[in-house]
């Protein structure tokens, strides 16, 4: 099954990819497209249309490499991950997993590297159109912000394959929507639509499929325009707080807050505010 054309978005992305090819010339990717659609923003597009962007080991390796490259690039302030209008990622590549044994997956820690997106310091936005099922849903849940297209469909249907989610689905989804809802979805394999995802707090906003990527890039551009040390500290504080108690989280937040007073960006930001001008952050 071929994914339908992404019309104007594909044309814009292709032009951007070509114009910025030199920046990424050292990292040829076979399963993703990488472009710079706005200053400070890296756009990573999953690109396995014949399999609805099913997540495979080669794709994950490409994705991890692109994310690490963007994370180490001082000109990049935020990252957007998307797929096609039909599928963000319709799940894991079942053909790759079908004949694996317990020894195969256990000894080689199969899919452990699928979670490397959570180690990226810079904010990641997921722009989810179409299907985000199984591993695709789990990849979206690793992002810091999720935007969804109106026709997006989320779910963890692994139970229908005789397995369970293995890349964070039982953990991140439960933390977002609560035990009862997560149990129902995971144990039945039911899916949920963009409207429900918005009501449950899984996504931040819902847009038309044609606007989705542009809106995600716009938000990423706004983030990239802020002081990057503060942006990364804020992401670190939020994520750390989700893993510890309130008192520990508050203490960690305060320490990061204090540390930013040692940066040039803090002086510039506050001076610009007093002088009623736009701040010129340097990430120092």
Structural features, described:
This protein has about 280 residues and is α/β, with parallel strands linked by helices. About 45% of the residues lie in helices and about 15% in strands. The protein contains 12 helices and 10 strands. Strands 1-2-3-5-7-10 form a 6-stranded mixed β-sheet, with helices on both faces. The protein is globular and about 60 Å long. The chain starts with 6 loop residues before the first helix and ends in a 10-residue tail after the last helix. The N terminus is likely disordered.
Q: Rg from C-alpha positions? A: 19 Å
Number of helices: 12
Structural class: alpha/beta
Shape, please?
globular
Give the averaged pLDDT, no decimals: 90
Q: N- to C-terminal separation?
A: 49 Å
- Helical residue percent band: 40-55%
Strand composition percent? 15-25%
Keywords:
284 residues; alpha/beta; 6-stranded mixed sheet; 45% helix; disordered N terminus
Per-chain topology:
Elements: H1 7-19, E1 32-38, E2 41-46, H2 57-72, E3 78-82, E4 87-89, H3 94-97, H4 102-107, E5 124-128, E6 131-133, H5 135-142, E7 145-149, E8 153-155, H6 169-177, H7 179-188, E9 191-193, H8 194-199, E10 205-207, H9 209-224, H10 228-241, H11 246-259, H12 264-274
Parallel strand pairs: 2-3, 3-5, 4-6, 5-7, 6-8, 7-10
Antiparallel strand pairs: 1-2, 8-9
Helix pairs in contact: 6-7, 10-11
């Amino acid at each position: 099954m071929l994914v339908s054309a992404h019309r104007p978005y594909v044309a814009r992305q292709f032009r951007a990819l070509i114009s910025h090819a030199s920046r990424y010339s050292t990292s040829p990717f076979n399963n993703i497209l990488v472009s710079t659609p706005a200053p400070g923003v890296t756009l990573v597009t999953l690109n396995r249309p014949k399999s609805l962007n099913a997540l495979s080991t080669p794709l994950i390796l490409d994705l991890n490499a692109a994310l690490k490259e963007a994370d180490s690039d001082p000109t990049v302030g935020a990252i957007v991950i998307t797929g096609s209008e039909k599928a963000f990622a319709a799940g894991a590549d079942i053909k790759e997993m079908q004949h694996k044994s317990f020894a195969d997956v256990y000894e080689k820690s199969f899919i452990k590297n699928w979670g490397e997106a959570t180690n990226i310091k810079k904010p990641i936005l997921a722009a989810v159109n179409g299907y985000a099922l199984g591993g695709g849903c789990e990849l979206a849940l690793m992002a810091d912000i999720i935007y969804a297209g109106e026709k997006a469909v989320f779910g963890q249907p692994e139970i229908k394959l005789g397995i369970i989610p293995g890349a964070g689905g039982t953990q991140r989804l439960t933390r977002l929507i609560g035990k009862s809802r997560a149990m129902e979805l995971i144990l039945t394999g039911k899916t949920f639509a963009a409207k429900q995802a918005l009501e449950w707090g899984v996504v931040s906003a819902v847009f038309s499929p044609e606007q989705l990527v542009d809106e995600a890039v716009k938000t990423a551009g706004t983030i990239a325009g802020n002081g990057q040390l503060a942006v990364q500290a804020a992401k670190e504080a939020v994520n750390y707080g989700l893993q510890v108690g309130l008192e520990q989280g508050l203490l960690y937040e305060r320490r990061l807050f204090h540390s930013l007073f040692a940066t040039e960006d803090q002086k510039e930001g506050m001076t610009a505010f007093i002088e009623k001008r736009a701040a010129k952050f340097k990430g120092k």
